[in-house]
């Protein structure tokens, strides 16, 4: 597996979890926050938030900055923009695939109707 593929997989895995998306939402709203503050806004423990933040950090979506005894996390905007672009590209590719499937299904339905009409006319 290429490095680029591994990075995309890690990104999708990171944002595929609803709790991690909520962690990102909290950080987007606050600008930055500690795991304790984020946990206060979610129905999960501080330890669970810390694990989610570690996954988001590995995917490059957040970064932690030590301030005294605390680690304050913030969104990495440039990586979030790249992630958004990546997801939009995948969505566009799926839209194209679905449009092709629709064209094939419609063509098959038209052909079936044509055959049925031809059979009825020959009776």
What would you say this structure looks like, in words?
With 123 residues, the chain is mostly helical. The protein folds into 2 domains: 3-75, Winged helix-like DNA-binding domain superfamily/Winged helix DNA-binding domain (Arc Repressor Mutant, subunit A); 79-123. The protein contains 5 helices and 3 strands, in the order ααβααββα. The chain has a 3-stranded antiparallel β-sheet with strand order 1-3-2. Strand 2 (62-67) and strand 3 (70-75) form a beta hairpin. The model has no long low-confidence stretch (mean pLDDT 91).
If you average the pLDDT, what whole number results? 91
Q: From the alpha carbons, calculate the radius of gyration and give it in angstroms.
A: 24 Å
Largest sheet: 3 strands, antiparallel
| Uncertain regions spanning at least 5 consecutive residues | none
- In what order do the strands lie side by side in the largest sheet? 1-3-2
Question: CATH class of the largest domain, please?
Answer: Mainly Alpha
Q: Tell me the helix content.
A: over 70%
The secondary structure category is mainly alpha
What is the architecture of the largest domain at the second tier of CATH? Orthogonal Bundle
How far is it from the N-terminal to the C-terminal residue, by CA?
60 Å
* CATH-defined superfamily of the largest domain: Winged helix-like DNA-binding domain superfamily/Winged helix DNA-binding domain
Q: What's the number of structural domains?
A: 2
Beta strands, count: 3
Shape: elongated
How do the helices and strands follow one another from N- to C-terminus? HHEHHEEH
Helical run tally:
5
């Amino acid at each position: 597996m290429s490095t680029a593929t591994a990075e995309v997989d890690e990104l999708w895995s990171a944002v595929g979890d609803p709790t991690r998306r909520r962690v990102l939402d909290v950080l987007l709203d606050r600008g930055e926050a500690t795991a304790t503050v984020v946990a206060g806004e979610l129905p999960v423990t501080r330890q669970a938030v810390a694990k989610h933040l570690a996954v988001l950090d590995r995917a490059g979506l957040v970064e932690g900055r030590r301030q005294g005894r605390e680690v304050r996390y913030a969104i990495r905007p440039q990586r979030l923009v790249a992630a958004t672009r990546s997801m939009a590209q995948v969505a566009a590719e799926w839209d194209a695939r679905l449009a092709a499937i629709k064209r094939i299904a419609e063509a098959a339905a038209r052909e079936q109707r044509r055959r049925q009409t031809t059979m009825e006319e020959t009776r």
